[in-house]
Specification:
Elements (H helix, E strand, L loop, with lengths): L11 H19 L11 E6 L5 H12 L3 E6 L11 H11 L2 E5 L3 H10 L4 E5 L5 H15 L6 E5 L4 H12 L3 E5 L8 H7 L6 E4 L2 H5 L4 E4 L11 H7 L7 H4 L7 E4 L11 H6 L1 H23 L3
Parallel strand pairs: 1-2, 1-3, 3-4, 5-6, 5-8, 6-7, 8-9
Helix pairs in contact: 1-5, 1-12, 2-12, 3-4, 5-6, 5-12
């Protein structure tokens, strides 16, 4: 695996390899076993969108792997002043061993891979969030023991999270039901992909219908970065899409809850449900570190 651009690019086998390596790296980290697989390697971290979990987990992960992370704010780079992404890709390829980018347009990530000569990792775009979904899958497998045959339900916006979860769940032999208001559906490319999985995928308007029999229930904020101006409009559109105790009563009794954070209690998730499932949610947040370390190792080495 040279790049991680989107979940659509990964095979079932590649996802399994990443998750297995993430489990191994997590075990080693918890038992103080060093794994300096990237000694002497450098990873540039380009941020056009602000971040807490992505920045800290990538910087700490690269350090634990023996490499050097270099934070690159778009505001401090020529790319922030209009330098073509293809020129930035060519220049940074001469200095770095890999690039992680967190940005708006998926095309920027694709162009970095096209014009550069080093591995590119997608830390988030408006289209997809592959690193988060790998952490989610890792967490679900930890709690449920397996992925195949589990039912996932996503309640909320057809954003980068819903796009990537649909792909990740279906590739890992799960079923997934998503509930979103009209006009907030997932990307057409993802819906076209899901057609090949028959009744393993379901898109509905009624959250209760999506959650029935779910093993894992997932949500995200209603207004993502760059959509703050639509916040009030979105609150009205998503009324009734809150994961609360009543909605959770339709899921399996042992269902877990996932949220990529930050969470807006009282909007997409109630405070009671969040606190009841806080252990699962913060295990998910921690697993960003381990899953991303596995991605970096896969991209930058032959392991």
């Amino acid at each position: 695996m040279k790049h991680l651009l989107k979940m659509l690019d990964l095979s079932h086998e590649e996802i399994c390899e990443i998750l297995n390596l993430a489990d191994q790296l997590k075990y080693e980290q918890k038992h103080n076993i060093e794994h300096k697989y990237l000694k002497g390697k450098t990873l540039g971290l380009i941020f056009e969108k602000a971040s807490t979990r992505t920045r800290v987990s990538f910087e700490v992960g690269m350090y634990q792997l023996g490499g050097l992370p270099i934070f690159l704010s778009a505001n401090d780079m020529q790319i922030g002043r209009g330098e073509p992404v293809q020129d930035t890709a060519r220049v940074l390829s001469r200095y770095l061993d890999g690039i992680m980018i967190r940005t708006f347009k998926q095309s920027e990530v694709e162009d970095l891979a096209k014009y550069g000569s080093i591995p590119i990792i997608n830390g988030l775009t408006d289209f997809c969030h592959p690193c988060q979904i790998l952490a989610d899958l890792m967490t679900i497998r930890e709690y449920k023991g397996k992925l195949a045959g589990q039912k996932m339900a996503f309640i909320g916006d057809g954003n980068n999270m819903m796009n990537s979860l649909i792909v990740g769940a279906l590739k890992m032999e799960m079923s997934i039901s998503v509930a979103c208001p009209e006009g907030y559906e997932p990307d057409p490319l993802v819906l076209e992909f899901a057609k090949g999985f028959g009744d393993k995928f379901e898109m509905v308007r009624e959250p209760k219908k999506a959650v029935v029999g779910a093993d894992v229930v997932i949500t995200d904020v209603w207004a993502s970065m760059g959509q703050e101006g639509e916040a009030e409009k979105r609150k009205k559109a998503f009324a009734g899409y809150c994961i609360d105790e009543e909605l959770m009563s339709y899921a399996k009794p042992d269902a877990i809850v996932q949220h990529c954070l930050p969470a807006h209690r009282g909007e997409e998730i109630s405070a009671d449900v969040f606190e009841a499932h806080a252990a699962e949610i913060f295990d998910e947040a921690e697993n960003r570190l381990h899953a991303q370390k596995a991605v970096i190792v896969k991209c930058l080495t032959d392991k």
